[in-house]
């Protein structure tokens, strides 16, 4: 019997986990499989293994696992697969498929463009787009993030840069440098899902720069309803051509 399992990072804040659960529930409404579940990598329950336990209890023999992460960082490439290795040892008779994170996709680019338009960005001026990510030690995550910046440039956002919360180039230092160099305005677009607390930190940092008229903070990507279509695409993609397969049969 087929099961779908979506994996999120998990938040220390109940509101963040509730956002994820509500979003996944809406996605489940559009997926026709007998068993549907979700689990968290950390900070919340059910854990990934608890979610798999529940799927197996419901007679799942094949479990398609899709990581709900924006980029292929350490969590998607190492942490979740480690949990699935543990699950496979516990359930050698179950066939596990593992998919791609959200990644670089037209849907996400469209959302970022909408965030910019909503705040009044004009392609005709000399404004800069600063795409803000969490940041990862995984090189491929940075490569994918830069692809998103390049795609925005190809669409007319010629002054586009990448910046991060946790790794270099740090967004606050980048903003300061741009302002010192006389840039007209800087539009900061946070490409984040669990954005509540991080968004507030970014907002406070920008305020402390005393340049709020020159730095425009856009809404984060968040759990936009259009991402549901992307998740469904990742499910179908994984069922046909999974990134990894654990097959004990």
Automatic annotation (TrEMBL):
Protein name: Sirohydrochlorin chelatase
Organism of derivation: Cytobacillus spartinae
Entry-linked CDD domains: CbiX_SirB_N (cd03416)
Keywords: Lyase, Metal-binding
Keyword set includes Lipid metabolism: no
PANTHER family: SIROHYDROCHLORIN FERROCHELATASE, CHLOROPLASTIC (PTHR33542:SF3)
Pfam families: CbiX
